[in-house]
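Weekly puzzle thread! Below is a chain. First person to post its structure in token form gets bragging rights.
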Amino acid sequence: MTEEALEKENIAIAKAYKELLKVSYRTLSADDKKLIRSAFDVAIDAHKDQRRKSGEAYIFHPLAVAKIVAQEIGLDATSIAAALLHDVVEDSEDYSISDIEGMFGETVAKIVNGLTKISSLKKDMDVSMQAENFRKMLLTLNDDVRVIIIKIADRLHNMQTMDSMRDDKQVKIASETLYIYAPLAHRIGLYNIKTELEDLGLKYTEPEVYNDILNKIKESKEEQDKYIAAFSEVIKNSLDKELMDYTIKGRPKSIFSIRRKMQVQGVSFDEVYDKFAVRIIYKSDEANEKFLAWKIYSIVTDHFRPNPIRLRDWISSPKSTGYEALHITVMGPKGRWVEVQIRSERMNEIAEKGYAAHYKYKQNSEKEDSLETWINRLQEALENPDTNAVDFVEQFKLNLYSKEIFVFTPTGELKSLPKGATSLDFAFSIHTEVGMKTRGAKVNGKLVPLSHELQSGDQVDILTSESAKPNANWLDYATTARARSKIKSALKEDKKRIGEEGKEILRRKLKQLKITLNEASVNELVNYFKLKTSLDLFYRVGLGTIDNTMLKEYASSRSNALMSFIKNKITRKQTVKKEDLEKDEVTAKYDSLVFGKEEEKLDYKLSNCCNPIPGDDVFGFLTVNEGIKVHKKNCPNAVSLQSNYAYRIMQAKWIDSSQQEFLVKITLTGIDHIGLVNDITSIVSENMHVDMKSISFESNDGLFSGKINVVVKNNTIIKKLLEKLKKINGIDKVTRV
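Winning reply:
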């Protein structure tokens, strides 16, 4: 570069730095400015030899990120300094985290370290590794929530300046933004940034769609501005009469949200009816905020008829992101629906700045902040080592973006849950211990199943019992990440407990067969029964799925060395076929397909259009000639089958057959005597892994007959139960129907 060009660049850098101090949302003290200046000097030095892909000096990037942090998000001087330094440790060998701590203190160093950890995560990898990295990234929330906020600002600036990148790189970064960063910005309450990230994400993932909508918005802008002016004029006169201090703004909906509406409603751009919203922002002290919001609501609805089902009151019950506002949709001039958002200046700042404004206004209030509550909840889910990373990301995304419902506890306290949450989710949202001991639930005073989907306004009372504990079916009832992760770890604990008992049983049984239980014999058994881990083996022995006969067969095959040698040869040959090996692994876990709520085993065929394999999300379709055909839920034909032949669709899912429970009917006959029913029920209840579903007894002229429906995991358990029942005094005959 020529000296003249360098001089120009230095002037531009100095100008960008001054601009940063000028636009800060917080009032910066002399010490703040000193801290920011030191950070700026270190960043200049660290990045002096670096240039961006566009050719400009690298320092413009940290300056731009710091400006977003200062102006748009409104964070403090510590965060501005950390934003300036966010790439220093990663990009320069002259500075380490301990250097940063020595110069700027522990807090700045902690934030910079968190940001460096995120940046060092490998970018090009498969989905499960990406998910694992995302999980690690979220763990930095524990260090300081500002780490994630600065990371979002960093991503926003990268998205704004992506034009000089390769096309494939643009698509990858844009997809990751839509998948992770936009939902995170939404959850932290940074709505403006979320909107911009979504629009930029669409610009690079679907450029034609983006440009098409953008051009149409530009074309209709003049007509839209006139409409908003005419609409506002009507309300202004009435608001002025009430001597209110307010501003009215017309705001077009984002390109991304218009695109989503077009997709969801299956309409064209012209048919999307609410392409803009009118925002009324009023001045008020905190005491009168609510009163004035409803007063404005009353004035707006005096002039325009409201849509009664489109009223959203987030003033009485703020969203869990901290968002407060009153949203109404009214019928404006020319028969067009218009969304009107009513917010005080405080609410508007919280909506735009999220976290930062929240803390500015929260100083005097002792109420726990919803962001803190959310981070604590998230922490629990993140720290559960048993959760599969991909499942976690999917669940997390659902809970990030999902619409909310508000439900009441028996004492009238308000709780917010994602839409679609069940009474079991509510139990876990109160406390993990309550969730674990849940026996049932009452909604609005009426007993409901644990799978009951809650609606806004429900009052929920959870019934608990010391003897209650999670079972595998609970995973079908729970939708929130918190509840699911807790249930999974409880089931794992249960499996371990049964596994420990199974290990002792196996030791005894092998001793009778003159085999020692050691690492070698355990590995042999795991291979012999085509299992994955020793825990799977002990668990199945504990349940009785692997019984004496099967172990004797193993012992005899083991004693025959020649047979063992041949078997190994065959196994080796099979391992060459990679697909077979993978199939075996999956099938070992999900080896059985069941249909309907009763989870029946029926004959089926796998469809050729989507070729489902064990473990896929599937459904059954009842064909005219070929019985049940199984399709993946995301099969290309799924939508048309489900919309045209809904009555032929059957629920279906892959299960681990060792975990499956079967309904067994038992009939008993004998001589009646006092206490007989008690003897029968106590044996059924005390017998391990048996759950009684229904029971009926009748006595006639001294003879007794009864029917019991029980749920068991396998044949061995039912045999043991029948033997015990036969030994009861007075019982003559016990048969399994």
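Puzzle host: Confirmed. Bonus trivia for everyone else. The two ends are 91 Å apart (CA to CA).
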